[in-house]
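Inverse folding, one chain.
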């Protein structure tokens, strides 16, 4: 059919040529330069131009077809490479899920050869190296990926996590900082970098990061972050407390006081802050200010530990009658407070008012069913009055009770016991959880040691 159309066109062109040539028999001069001059019929020039146009059109179409062919060939090759990458990627994922990281590594490596800029391949290849126990290789493949895909948040997050797992904290810290540089409100990166700064003892930056994290959480709209804010707020107070402890130990009372006041501004129910503030004044020789602070703190939040501190402070001033008056007044104001009554009985023993101690402790014993610390105090009081038997003597000696009978404490969060109060539980690492332990017997625990680590 195409040949017939072409034949008709040729006949039409030929017919037109002869028709025009018949009507226009005249010749024209075709001059190229002074040397080359040709005398040709005018119709020849007309037909030659028409034929030349057809030839150029055909050549243009041919060039376009060649270009299209080359482009389609490249697309086909790219499609085949992508298909090969996808096939190897899926095979690698399957092998990884089957617990065969070595086989998965082979598939992912081939997939990366076919597609060297695929984010998912880098991530899964790093997972395969991690599963094979090759953390350093996993870190290196992620860094290769960042060279191909700069500023990828997914690669940076995994790089930071794997670097931390590999023990390369400096590289992990750099990754966290890069994430924060690109996304200043990334809560996960802020929290992890904060943890690193805490573990390294850089409390100043840890505090700034924690404050920024809290501000970011507050700025999140459409989500109820009440519990999260409460948790992060407790951590902020804990970090401020650790800073205050550090400053106090470094004899920087101004820095310690500033941190404590910041805590109390956030919440005056953070008992360790009030305790430490009084201790700072006490260490400076201003016992009266320490007593005033602890008394006010007890009035706001009646925790028995304040009376333990008040007791020692008044004894240092050689004025036991003052604390005795405060004990009696507090006991009258809070007749149902068993812990306070126990401490009053203990204080009677400390100042050798044994009969008063027995009277107070027996009164408490008649009102409670079981109380471990009460039994210890009452047993000691009986021993001091000579009302002993072999059982009470063995009981006292077996427990190794010291004559001052320091009250035991228990963490209200994790239940670990301690022989002395501290602002932070040594086991669960939470602050403001140590309470008087009057119920559960158990071996005497060691005094918690300060530790800046979050976990």
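Residues assigned per position:
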């Amino acid at each position: 059919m195409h040949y017939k159309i072409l034949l008709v066109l040729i006949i039409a062109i030929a017919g037109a040529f002869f028709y025009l040539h018949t009507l226009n028999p005249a010749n024209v001069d075709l001059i190229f330069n002074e040397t080359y001059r040709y005398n040709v019929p005018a119709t020849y020039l007309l037909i030659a131009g028409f034929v030349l146009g057809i030839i150029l059109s055909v050549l243009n179409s041919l060039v376009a077809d060649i270009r299209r062919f080359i482009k389609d060939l490249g697309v086909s090759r790219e499609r085949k490479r992508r298909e090969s990458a996808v096939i190897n990627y899926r095979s690698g994922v399957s092998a990884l899920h089957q617990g065969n990281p070595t086989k998965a590594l082979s598939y992912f490596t081939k997939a990366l050869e076919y597609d060297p800029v695929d984010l998912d391949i880098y991530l899964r290849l790093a997972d395969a190296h991690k599963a094979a126990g090759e953390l350093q290789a996993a870190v290196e493949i992620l860094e290769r990926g960042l060279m191909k895909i700069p500023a990828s948040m997914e690669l940076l997050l995994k790089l930071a996590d794997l670097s931390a797992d590999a023990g390369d904290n400096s590289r992990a810290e750099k990754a966290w900082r890069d994430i924060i540089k690109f996304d200043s409100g990334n809560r996960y990166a802020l929290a992890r970098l904060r943890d690193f700064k805490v573990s390294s003892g850089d409390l100043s930056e840890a505090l700034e990061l924690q404050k920024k994290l809290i501000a970011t959480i507050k700025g999140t709209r459409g989500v109820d972050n009440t519990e999260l804010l409460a948790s992060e707020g407790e951590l902020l107070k804990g970090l401020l407390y650790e800073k205050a402890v550090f400053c106090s130990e470094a004899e920087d009372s101004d820095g310690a006081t500033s941190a404590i006041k910041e805590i109390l501004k956030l919440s005056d129910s953070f008992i360790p802050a009030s305790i430490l503030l009084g201790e700072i004044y006490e260490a400076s020789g201003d016992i009266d200010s320490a007593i005033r602070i602890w008394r006010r703190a007890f009035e706001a939040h009646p925790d028995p530990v304040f009376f333990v501190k008040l007791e020692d402070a008044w004894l240092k001033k050689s004025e036991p009658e003052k604390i005795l008056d405060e004990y009696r007044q507090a006991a009258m104001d809070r007749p149902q407070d068993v812990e306070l009554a126990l401490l009053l009985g203990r204080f009677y023993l400390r100042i050798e008012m044994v009969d008063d101690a027995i009277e107070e402790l027996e009164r408490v014993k008649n009102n409670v069913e079981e109380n471990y610390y009460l039994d210890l105090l009452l047993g000691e009081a009986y021993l001091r009055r000579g009302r002993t038997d072999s059982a009470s003597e063995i009981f006292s000696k077996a427990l190794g009770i010291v004559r001052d009978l320091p009250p035991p404490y228990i963490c209200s969060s994790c239940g670990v016991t301690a022989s002395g109060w501290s602002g932070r539980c040594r086991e669960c690492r939470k602050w403001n959880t140590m309470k008087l332990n009057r119920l559960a017997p158990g071996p005497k625990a060691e005094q918690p040691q300060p530790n800046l680590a979050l976990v």
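The two ends are 85 Å apart (CA to CA). Confidence is low (pLDDT under 50) at residues 440-455.
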